[in-house]
Amino acid sequence: MTPGAAGRPSVARALSSLQELLASARWAVAVAWSTNAWLLSGAAAFSLARGLLPAGLALTARGLVNGTVASLRNGAGIGPLVPWLVLGLLLTLAEALARLASNLFTQRLRDDINCRITSDILTHASRLDVAFFEDPRFQDVLQRAKQDPADHISRFLTDTLGVAFNTMQTASMLAILMVIEPWLVVVLLLFAAPYLHFQWRLATRHYAIEHSRATKRRWANYFVARLTTQSSVGEVKLLHLAPLLIDKFRALMAEFRDQDHHLYGRGFRGSSAFVVVSTAAIYAMFVHVSYRVLTGALTVGDLAIFGGATNRLRNTMESLIQEVASAMEQTLYISNVIEFLAAEPAAPSGEIAVSDTPPAEIELRDVFFTYPGSVEPALAGVSLHIRPGETVAIVGENGAGKSTLVKLIARLYDPNRGVVLFDGIDLKEFEREALHRQIAFVFQSFGRYEASVADNIAYGDWQRLLHDRGKVEDIARRAGVHDTIVAMPRGYDTMLGRTFGEYDLSGGQWQKIAMARAFAREAALLILDEPTSNLDARAEYDLFCRFQDLAHGRTTIIVSHRFSTVSMANRILVMERGRIVEAGTHEELLAMAGNYANLYELHRRQHAGVPGR
Prior knowledge:
Layout: H1 8-74, H2 82-127, H3 130-134, H4 136-145, H5 149-180, H6 184-212, H7 214-228, H8 230-238, H9 242-294, H10 300-341, E1 362-369, E2 379-386, E3 391-396, H11 402-409, E4 417-422, E5 425-426, H12 432-437, E6 439-442, H13 453-458, H14 462-465, H15 469-479, H16 482-486, H17 507-520, E7 525-529, H18 537-550, E8 555-559, H19 563-566, E9 571-576, E10 579-584, H20 586-592, H21 595-608
Parallel strand pairs: 3-8, 3-9, 6-7, 7-8
Antiparallel strand pairs: 1-2, 1-4, 4-5, 9-10
């Protein structure tokens, strides 16, 4: 191995890290510039101006002291001091006003960036597919990106402006003080370089700890949600889980606290060492300058400016080093935002516009699908054909792959193998949003939106219905929920949910609203995943009576465990372990005496009160 070869990898890593920091810094500045170039320019200009003013004040103080000494000797009075006094007043006012103006521009820019970057993150999140949000690895990426992204960009800009201000101030002060004591710059650099290295190591350590906390922070948020969310608080109280969950939360917070306290201690010790050593060195130089004044080599004004300016210079250099380290640390957090915004959907959108002439024809050809992290496929070689306008029911035991199948048909996932066709065209070829506009879907975990009843229904096709109350009411009548709605405190304007409103619905009533929302969309394909799971027998019968009208002109897929619901279908598919094992009408499947017949017999015995085998 050649001399120095061992150190090359570390040098390469350092250069790579520096390139990443610079890339993040350029990205942050570009975001700020494109958000509001005028505010960024103003903040930078005032910061640079503030950096020059302290040197002017120091020179003014020197002139004032020397002028006062000369006036006392010559008996010239206050006249020669007036220009220095006026200049000092103007520079003091300019420094104060520049600070206020810089703060104003920075605060306004921070607000604009907060609105911009948060909106960008939400917009990008809306473009990612479902698989992204179900993968724990991407959940950590999302968690890191959500940790005050706008604040990190704003702090980076604030620190960068602070670096510009303090650099200008340091350079101008040094230019003056070096005339008095040239060795000052050498002494300060001897202490500044190690202190900058220390602060950078401290910042990278803090970021590394914070980066590793993503999963644990999600756990902490989960415990808080379980203890404070309406949907879970009842069971938590009944099972007396609060002490257990609080202990788990407290353990995580204690771990975070102990790690932070260790970093605080390191930061205090390092900063204290810099303050003590640099102050002692500067004071020693002050003694040397005092001696030179006594020997006549320097003036009293030189001593006055050196005494005041060196202390300010030390504080400025300390702030400069801390802001450099902080700005570099913020770029590490900014890289989290860049990483999230660089994430692409696993299933990219196509370009073909979907025909808006329902009903749809659906076909699957030898489709396989396995969830990320799973070994067993959720779907294994599924092939089927659904004719336009046909109503097909899918039945099977839990875990058979029913919900996965309909989610692939809706292109919430893409198959690992095989193809899903919509009107004879691969789903991947369609423009995603246009495809989804042709699909109405009632999920098992349907949405319970904190909004008015009218809006809850209109969200099914909000661009068309949000401001059309007449059509919303017509949809509610067709779906059989109009009478329920008008009995609410404010009718269609009743705010639903307990987070912002004061009126909540039963599970069955929420499901009726979800059904109305699905029927509100003039879609070619209607997918109902357990559409009657929360409905009582009367409500289910009412839906059955209305179903032909509601599903008219649409191809419909129903996933259900209820055989009364299944009877709405023209054809029934039976799934087992990710495969379609039987297909036919209710009577045909009973005649086969296979899986469907066994499931139906168990269902009949349960409702008849007959014990199973």
